[in-house]
Amino acid sequence: MPTERIGPPLLAGERETLRAFLDFHRATLAMKTDGLSDEELRSRSMPPSTLTLLGLVRHMAEVERVWFRRVINGEELPLVWSDEGDYQAAYDASGSTRSEAFGAWQTEVEHARRIEQAAESLDVTGHQARWDADVSLRLVMLHMIHEYARHNGHADFLREGIDGTVGA
After folding, report:
1. For residues 161 and 9, what is the distance between their CA atoms, to the nearest angstrom?
2. 93 touches 42 (CB < 8 A)
3. How confident is the chain (168 residues) per 10-residue block, as mean pLDDT?
4. By C-alpha distance, which of 103, 68, 69, 66 is closest to 82?
5. What is the pLDDT of residue 10?
6. Angle at CA 37, nearest 5°, toward 31 and 38?
7. Please, which residues have CB within 8 angstroms of residue 4's CB and are 6 or more apart in sequence?
């Protein structure tokens, strides 16, 4: 079943707009993987890069977890794919499957949505240990949109290299 992607509203408040753009980019990543086998999802971009669509999905699960659960919600939990805190481990999807990667990603997206919706305002803050700085939920949502937009560009090229599919 193809992924449904809803465009952001043209007229809305700040929070609704940020939420809609983030969900739009989440759906875009999922769309880039529609109809592909596990083997195709593990197809590497080009040497020497090991970047794959499945690796991007795993990476975005990690990013969702860190920014929403660890930073905003203050949860003390390890990364999804590395107990040692190695952020690069998520990119290695050589032994991964769609089910495993998407299961983790969807779980983290659901947590992120609950955390964002429960927050009193975009001014809620959390501590980003890697930056040793406090950050607002507003910054986190903007950063997430940036992360997805950047990696969706990678996904465009990866998908085109797999089967020639291009576009939105």
Report:
1. 32
2. yes
3. 85 97 97 96 89 97 97 96 90 95 98 98 96 96 98 96 87
4. 66
5. 93
6. 105
7. 27
CA 107 – CA 101 distance, rounded (Å): 10
Which CATH number fits the domain 14-163, given the four candidates 1.20.120.450, 3.30.360.10, 1.10.287.3510, 1.10.3720.10?
A: 1.20.120.450
Predicted confidence at residue 46, as pLDDT, reads 83
Q: What amino acid is encoded at 31 in this protein?
A: M
The two three-digit tokens of residue 151, written as one number: 């990696």
Residue 148, token pair as written in the block: 């997805």
Exposure string of 61-72, with b = 16+ CB inside 10 Å and e = fewer, is bbbbbbbbbbbb
**For the chain, where are the E strands, in sequence order?**
125-128, 133-136
